[in-house]
Every structure is written in structure tokens, then in C-alpha cells.
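Example record for the data management plan.
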Amino acid sequence: MQKIGKQTVKFDNTVSIISTASIVGPKEADGPLAKYFDQCLEDEFWGESSWEKAESKIIKETVNTVVSKSGINSSDIDYCFAGDLLNQCISSSFGLRDINIPFIGIFGACSTFVESLCLASVFLDGNAGTNAICAASSHFCSAEKQFRFPLELGNQRPPTSQWTVTGSGAAIVSKNGNGPYITNITLGKIVDMGIKDANNMGAAMAPAALDTLLTHFKDTGRNPSYYDAILTGDLGYIGKEILIDLAGTKGYNIKSNYNDCGVLIFDKETQDTHSGGSGCGCCATVFSGYLFKQLQEKKYKKILLIATGALTNSTTSQQGESIPGIAHAVSIEI
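Corresponding structural encoding:
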């Protein structure tokens, strides 16, 4: 393991992603990626008495599923890196409190899943363990309740708003295995361009995605054509177009092989999700379902996954603060 350039780590003993799992809610089940998920729920409560409890159940069952699919005994898993959007990461900590594996709760807003992959890779390549779980979750109803308005108020959503994905994605990374491999990670810096609209997260996060993208190319000496696909996590339609334009001003044309998980997970024309998907579960489920399948089938051999996050909460928004953005990138190759 060595640091290259300013913010990138290159792994000498490459870390393998050996299994993934994903569970999504009913709206995601009606989207174009439904066949790639392990389980699609019929309602947002899933038999629980609150949305928060339902989200905890979703991440718990997703982690149980990924362990089962991996064929690795839970006693042989050294760490679990997991997080979500709710205060103090209660979905992860409550959902995984019986897991009996050393737990590292993390928060990177919607960038949490890739942040977990980054941290787990450093641990394993640094000989601090052999196997680790990486997981993240979000829930539309609990997120709206905490960050914007309770659904009972029936507030109108502006066209720039995104739909928080109800779901969880999990991956097991290991020092053993036959790939796909995590070969590089580029950790992002906080970027704040003064956006204050909590209903326009794509615009708030796109500058951070640009900063990490440019840094990754500079640190590694790569360019967009090196990858079969470049995916951001949660920019949605508006943030995606902003990133394309911003990258173009810096001399990088990413139109041909770039897309966003928030664009992929919903059908804009039939599902009325406005600017697309967002939330920790967005990048986590799209990767753990759709993208991992493309890698396994070698339809993609090299991808750059850049998860973006808005580092805000309801208090800062009410106090008139701007929205800082963050983006972490992971290079995954066959």
C-alpha cells in the first residue's frame, strides 16, 4: 500500500470484493434495476412499527444475506464498516447490534458506502485483518422526516429534489478471492460552493465530485477513457449534467462513459422522482446489485465509483448555512 499523488492510495496486495447483497423498497422494485436486487419489499414498513425500525431491519437482513452468499463464517469476518443518514447512525448501530463482529460506524452522508470500501481496503491491505463487511442504508420516509418535512404534511417537492432510496447494499471485501479488485482509492476533500437549497443536493455535491475526479486523474495519470464506466453515487439528473459541464471546462470529456446511480435506479418518466435517486442506499444498492453483476460478467472490467455526500443536517439548514459536499472514489478492476 502506498500513497500516490495528493489524495490517492494504491494497493500492492489488491483487495477483492467477493460477494454483495442488496434489499430495496417498493419504489425501487418498480424501477429498471429490480431484477438485480436480492430482495424487493412490498411496503416501506416491512412489518415494523416505524420507518426507522424498518431501515434497521433492512440493513440487518442485507448484511446477513451477504455473509450467507460469501460462504465465509461470520467468526472469520474481522470488521464491519457501516453507516446511514440518521442521527448517530442509528439504523446501522441498532440493526447490527447483534452481529457480534467489531463494528466501525461511519458517516459520509450519501458517500458512506464508498467510504466504507475505502476504509476496509486500507485495513486489509495493511494486514489488520482478512475479511470485512461494508454496508450502508437509507429510507425515503425516515430521511424526509429528519432532513426536510414529515410526509404527513404533504409538502410539494420542487423539480430539483431527489428521492432518497429505500434500501441497503453490502459487500464483503477480502485479502483472498479472484476479484473484482479494489486497486486505488481517492479520498475527497470538503468542497463548499455556497449552495443553500436542501432540495438541490445535486448542485451542492457536484463540485466535490469534480474535485475528487480531477485529483484521481492527476494522482494516477489516468484519463476518462481508462475506465469502461465512471459512476457517481447520488448527483441525480441535475448534478450529473453539472459535473459533465464542469469536467469539460477542465479538459475532460466524460459524456461517453459516465452515469449516475441516482439516474439509473429510477425511471424518470414513469416514477416521478424528479431529479432521480439519492441517499446512502442509492450507490450501495446500485453497486451491490447492478454494477457488481456487470463486473462479474466482465461487461465492465474497470470502473471508477465516486460516491458523493451532502454534509448537512436540518439544524444547519434552518440556520442558513451552506451545504458542504464530499466525494470519495474507488477504482474497481478485473
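Summary line stored alongside the record: The first strand starts at residue 2 and ends at 4.
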